[in-house]
Predict the 3D structure of the following.
Amino acid sequence: MLKKWEAAWSRFHELTDQLMDPSVTNQPTQLKNLTKERADLEPIAELFEAHRAVEKQLAEAAQILADPSAGDELHRMARDETAQLESRRRELEEQAAAFLVPKDPRDEKSLVLEIRAGAGGEEAALFAGELFRLYGKYAEKKGFKVDLVEASETGIGGYKNIVALIEGKGAYSHFKYEAGVHRVQRVPVTEASGRIHTSTVTVAVMPEVDEVDVQIDPKDLRIDTFCSSGAGGQSVNTTYSAVRITHIPTGVVVSCQDERSQLKNRAKAMRTLRARIVEAERQKQEAEIAQSRKSQVGTGDRSEKIRTYNFPQNRVTDHRVGVTLHKLDAVMEGDLDEIVAVLKAQQQTETVNA
């Protein structure tokens, strides 16, 4: 990390010198670009200067400690100062790590969230609904809007699958760590013997894609309309407002029946379709890379067990970073900040040290 940090500091001073060059000041576009780059690097450069000063003070304290003639009192003061300086050094390095991590351009985007019941039958379907409720509460706390696209209900309140748009600047940065397999351990309501069952739910998180980012030829789409229906198949309305769109080249299918307007359902379905097509291409490219990287925060592979929710012990464990919290009740109410913070810190550390 120190090499990257020093390189950023050197670049900052190089830009400072360039901005004093008359050949640069006479070119407005170049001047603007260099000024912006220098402004972006200024905080990390200042942290590096502070870090160097702390290192110098630590070296001076070490000299005093190594000098037997300095006396006990001076040694005690040097030890106290060393402890304070080491704490300050760690603080500066943590701050620098956040600056040195390259920004993911997708972080500012909205996202498409897909939740599907996995192993466990009706119990998995019930937890799929509870997980969607958890994410809805988390999104609300962050000021994001949740817009349901598609939901396939079961008879007793569960869901086979749920698709939703979560809209807001920075939404993807908060939800991207949720992709993978979520395992739930609890006693089902229907279990008379009190035996704990284990079920799974898969979550996919896809950043929303702008129209300009993916070109879809209208000739490649098959669009079907049908009447919306609810749980059990009962009719919700008698107009053909529900929409099913099939992208023929990839076989990706999206349906939406949440709105009473066919036009609105079609717009939602297209937003979801674009995200799915790009995600499918991303997964294909990753599969073709022989030395596929598997990081602690995961790749979004749906076969990856990322978290366990143990209801009898009120415990939630994120397996990627080994974090266990004994407050599952709070997590189910949308309190994900502590887990997400650890995952973000882990990703920052891995990226900086890569």
